[in-house]
Amino acid sequence: MFDVGGVLAHDVWEHFFCDKDGISEKYCLDRGQLDAVGRLLWEVFAYRRATQPGDPDKFEKEYWNYFIKAFELEECARDDLMNRSHKFIRPVEGMDRLLAKLEQQHVDLLLCSNNNEFWFKRQMDLGFHKFFQDENKVILSCRIGVSKSDDSGKMFCAVRDALNGDVKDCIFVDDRGKNIKCAVGHGMTGILFPRDAEYGARYLEFLLRKMGFLM
After folding, report:
1. 95-210: CATH topology
2. Residues 69-109: pLDDT tens digits?
């Protein structure tokens, strides 16, 4: 079971907001305020489910409308913000090949991600759709209504329902220690992934081979 941001794809929010060529630099925005607005918008969209095919694109436009209003930017900045954000949605090197190897050896693949509908859609468009076509095995905060760290454990209950086997046989790969701790608390084995790392796929493949998931 894989997280998305930081594991399969580079984290959009952290890089796009603060990296070189990100919007903090482009629009001369205070990073403290940027962080506060970003977290507020996260709470608005991370738990909002798409019910219609066009909803992800609709939500993305709403997201940037909120952002423009918060920073009193010109409305015409929305297209630039959207275009720039897409440039920061990049796959983590080698993770697609590792997923293909796992699939070839009939390892059941699941996703469990704190994510909104529009960035998730863009991340899957990087070539990951083919590995996660079964919607029942895609567990997202925007579809469950809570995050992985929520005290209710609702996301991990959904994971258990989606598993073909025993929860003890489930390996959860995430880049945040608190999420690994939650997964372990629900009976899974956790692997802490080196966030966005170019060597992450090699590191993970080595561990999975040692654990017997790859031959």
Report:
1. Rossmann fold (3.40.50)
2. 999 999 999 999 999 898 899 999 999 999 999 999 999 99
